[in-house]
Design a protein that fits this description.
heterodimer, A: alpha/beta, Rossmann fold, 3 domains, 6-stranded mixed sheet, 17 helices, about 30% helix, about 25% strand, B: mainly alpha, about 0% strand
Chain lengths: ~525, ~375
Amino acid sequence: MSKEPAAPPFTPPDAPPALELRGIDKRFGLVHANRAITFSVAAGSIHGLIGENGAGKSTLMNIVYGFHRADAGEIRVHGRTVDIGSPQEAIATGIGMVHQHFMLVENFTVLENVVLGVEGGAFLLGGLTAARAELGRLARNYGLEVPLDTLVSELSVGLQQRVEILKALYRGAEVLILDEPTAVLTPHEADQLFSMLRRLRAQGKAVILVTHKLREIMAVTDRVTVMKQGAVVAEVATCETTPRRLAEHMVGRAVLLHIEKRPAQLGASLLTVKKLEVCDRLGVVRLKNVSFNLRAGEIVGIAGVAGNGQSELLEVLAGTRAPSHGEISFGGCDLVREQIDPRARRALGLAHVPEDRLRMGVVVEFSAADNAMLGYHDAARFNRGGLRDEAAIRAACAEKMTEYDVRPCQPELRLAAFSGGNQQKLVLAREIDADPKVMLIGQPTRGVDIGAIEFIHKQLIALRDAGKALLLVSVELDEILALADRILVMNAGEIIGELARADATEEKIGLMMAGVRAEASS
Amino acid sequence: MSAPVKLPRWAELGVLPLINLGVALVLAGVIIKTLGESPFAAFKLMATGALGTQEGIGYTLYYATNFIFTGLAVAVAYHAGLFNIGAEGQAYIGGLGTGLVCLYLGVWPFWVILPLAILAGAISGAAWAFIPAWLQARRGSHIVITTIMFNFIAAALMTYLLVNVLIKPGQQSPETREFSANAVMPAAHELFAKIGVTIVATPLNLTFGLSLMAAAGVWIFIWRTRWGFALRVAGANSTAAVYAGISPPRVIVGAMLISGALAGGLGLNELMGSQHRILMDFPSGAGFVGIAVALMGRNHPVGIVVAAVLFGALYQGGSQLSFDMPKINRDMVVVIQGLVILLCGAMENVLRAPLTLLFARLHGGKDTE
């Protein structure tokens, strides 16, 4: 992420802020999601909004965008008090939002998507022609070049995001809210996004960047507001703060952003993958010719933009998806040829912390105790005389909760009542407790707050130091760089390059993530 | 953070159903009033008819027995994420199994016939559920569609069998000959007489006790065995089930076999307990009432027993009503029952949001967190 010198924000003297929130308060039943939030964003500035999961950032932005109505408080746009009851009204007052999950019609062209809802008349043609001209102007002004007649489904994620931004600008947005915009981008695409945001700033737009990535805040924002438990705990100029101080504000205590680890003590090869290939139901190749091996005592990181085959790789290794070709040698057998199911793989010592915890790793409606034994429910220690041994199940969960600092320590509580970080700790505890030889871990800290990230990273390093082999899939490059001893980069279903940690730089990995093959290994 | 606030458990299980029932009765009251009868007199008549006399209670529990079996059948499937609309057909075919045992092994002593009749009912019901289950598990045919269709197939099959094969020779009515005395379920009044207590004779019979045992069995199975756990995991999150090494297709088939077997219990009550022969359409809609019973009982065996007794009371009270109030005929009673099913079953979530809001208000003031 290049750090250009911040252009002097364009603000006419004494102009009212583009967006001002005064005393915004919101409760959802018992949850006090926003407490008397006051903050303002000047026109011609980029404002960062940062906080842990559940800090109330999304609620606040949803209030501004008209999805929720505040219980109390006032919203002013350019000094004028407005009442925003729906997204349509937000757009009419000049507020635009780019959601984390894009709101695009995949089988419409870019042009059709942009005019959707503001076609301007019963017949499309006139509106489309006018829109084409206007979009040409916007593209020139802001450097937002997008092929207008291409189907959205054929665009890269970065371009789709650009369409979302165009949509907002086309509707006259003066205040642009971006919710976690870089979650799906390569580092290079993120840089492009940031230079685009800087251009918007130079044109006098107000940009709000909602994120949990401290680096982005430091790279692009002018001011930053930190939220914690529904309240604003700090608001500072970005140039006057440091990532460490921001992290402390977010968590409320000092946090280690980098974990110390000693050099890997490599042992025997535990898992070997040869020429793995996966086709999905439509016959699209998701994984091709993937070969690598994992040795005891190392963490191998798989880097890549989400959707480049990492998920399929994890699923094939864990046994929840069948490959079309290839072998996986583990524990003296070929898991593919012998069709070993997930349960048997677990018994052989292959544990799996799935990428999408809520979809695959847990059942949120069930108690923590039930979740802490999911996948091990047939184990003798949890059954007695044909019935479940409830006491043993609860005791095992309570023990894990204490050891992994899962709060609240209530095995009976439904899992949905726990925060993402605590859920993840419980999943991790479950899989580590089974004493596996090889651990597959997908996005170990997705949706997890900074405090818990530190803890989880330490656990993973401890596991490595205990002689286990870890395969770490993460879309967070920081995480890969912090943990991995060896890095494989995936692009379009292939392993496009391998780097030893010592040789790895963000630039090298970023290039490979974008599909540029490494020259004969560095 | 923006997670929906939940009702406290006691309100979820107690207050909400009562409010729903109340609204249903108010609507029913409006209808009764429109017909020119007094709603209060009508409801009083229903209540005393169902619960005010020994006879009323006997009939109420006799109807409830059917609803407990079908309610449990629906609930077990529900926990596996399946909506079994076919309890009606499964009960019908299950009853055929029970009935055939009673017809052809009637010379054997009762305590030999009973387990065989139970087994035959369970196996036949399970077999009828197996086909839709297999189609869902292996071919992805939607179980709601297939189970509905299997109700019709069951009805047609039974009509054919009763008209052409099983009919008692020399009569018009499509029903079999009567079971032998050995194949008759002991009635409640007979059992009570043995311990010296005299109660009024009603169709209530030993099957009621069996249905309560089935409810207890379902509770143990669902919440206290690892198979029940696997079934619930597959029902709640099939991706997590695959991850945990549970095979969803096997759960689908297993759950539907149990579901069909439970529905098959209806024949014990209806045929062995009351009719003593196989006749046309003996489940008479109990399979569908079972859906409402399971919904209202939150798919929990205790709730199902309570809801089944309530619906039993509605049936018994309703027939009393149509006897004593000439303006309210049998069809109006069905309308009233339909309103209760609608409010307590299909629309039970309509009033959940306002009630939740009310609870949040009541608690919100004290809570500063």
